[in-house]
Design brief:
single chain; 372 residues; Urease, subunit C, domain 1; TIM Barrel; 2 domains; 4-stranded mixed β-sheet; globular
């Protein structure tokens, strides 16, 4: 299990690497360090190597194995009984969110305050072993995630290597549009509006100008069960998504979509998006195209588990548990169909630094430990 001593040891290793890299960010000559531990996880070989060593020069891993080069003057850090392993990747994070009422954070907290909290979240994720993340929307903080990414890249603050999207894009009255608030209060949306193909292109151009690495689009709205069947409304037609994907391709980047079901998922994969995030239900045709085009599903089971465990009412908890069971069954179908999978937790609404749970759940619901 990820929460075993093996994962804890990885945190020791990654924390040491992060400290070395952060301290050297402005040094003229990069320092050379050898990390020595009882074991090293060979992911490709699927085995433990004993003992294990990693040679780090500046912020680059130069060698890894049972024994590595020890250049003159190298600093050796003995991590004892620890196990060294590669950094983890979370393909669906929200640095600008924290546990609590998600919508109220964008109303009560200023963007500068949320940016400070995002910096702390980035450090928490790094110290938990995550060295690369794809941040799927600031939820109303605009392009502030670009500043956090840049500060990490410049060595000003510790954090994972980030790819950021700015605000997600949605339709008027769609997902994250504060639709349960008093209309007279004019509560702002947590997303940027785009109601047709032309507006999608314009919004994408503005977001890329402001520093986004890729584009996130809300392709479906609020999901649930109706008469015993999963139902979710789509937000953009395939033609509209075609325009969005073409514009991002023109600029050398891609689109990831929040998408929980059909027919929105089919429209998205036909348009050529890079990921279907959440992916509660996918049709056979959608799964076939995803396998053919290597479009990733990002299940985000951990957020569903957290909502079930922290529901305000027993009825709410039961609803979330029913959706998890449905999603887990669909996940098995997706694995059998050969749909590519990426680990993404949706961390933010649950505490940063705890998202390794996602890998446990993916294994629990059918993925082999080796593949995960």
């Amino acid at each position: 299990m990820i929460r075993s001593g093996l994962f804890f040891s990885a945190v020791v290793f990654l924390s040491a690497c992060a400290s070395v890299a952060h301290a050297q960010a402005t040094d003229a000559a990069p320092k050379t360090v050898v990390l020595h531990a009882a074991h090293l996880l060979d992911v490709e070989g699927g085995k433990l190597i004993s003992p294990g060593e990693v040679l780090v020069r500046g912020n680059k891993i130069v060698e890894a194995g049972a024994s590595v080069s020890h250049p003159a003057g190298v600093q050796v850090i003995d991590l004892g009984a620890s196990t060294l392993m590669p950094g983890l990747i979370d393909a669906h994070t929200h640095l600008f969110l924290h546990p609590g009422a998600e919508d109220s954070q964008t109303i009560v907290e200023s963007v500068p305050e949320r940016t400070i909290l995002a910096e702390l979240a980035a450090k928490d994720d790094l110290m938990a072993g995550f060295t690369a993340e794809r941040d799927m929307g600031t939820e109303g903080a605009g392009s502030a995630d670009s500043a956090v990414r840049n500060a990490i890249n410049q060595g000003l603050i510790p954090g994972p290597r980030m790819r950021v999207s700015g605000n997600a894009i949605s339709v008027l009255g769609g997902h994250e549009d504060a639709i349960h608030y008093n209309p007279a209060a004019h509560v702002p949306s947590n997303a940027d509006y785009a109601n047709n193909a032309a507006e999608l292109v314009e919004t994408i151009r503005r977001q890329l100008k402001e520093g986004a690495d890729f584009i996130k689009i809300y392709q479906t709205g609020a999901a649930g069960m109706r008469d015993g069947k999963f139902w979710v409304p789509y937000q953009y037609t395939q033609a509209e998504l075609d325009a969005a994907v073409a514009e991002t391709a023109r600029m050398g980047t891609r689109v990831g979509v929040h998408c929980e079901g059909e027919p929105g998922a089919l429209y998205a994969v036909k348009a050529g998006v890079k990921s279907i995030d959440h992916a509660d239900e996918l049709s056979p045709e959608t799964m076939r195209i995803m396998k053919e085009k290597q479009i990733y599903a990002v299940p985000t089971f951990t957020i569903q588990e957290y909502f079930a465990d922290h529901a305000e009412t027993p009825q709410g908890a039961e609803r979330e548990k029913m959706l998890i069971a449905f999603h887990a069954a669909e996940f098995k179908k997706q694995l059998a169909a050969g749909v590519p999978m990426a680990v993404g937790s949706d961390v933010g609404p649950f505490p940063h630094g705890t998202q390794a749970r996602e890998m446990e759940l993916m294994v629990q619901f059918g993925m082999t430990r080796r593949v995960c």
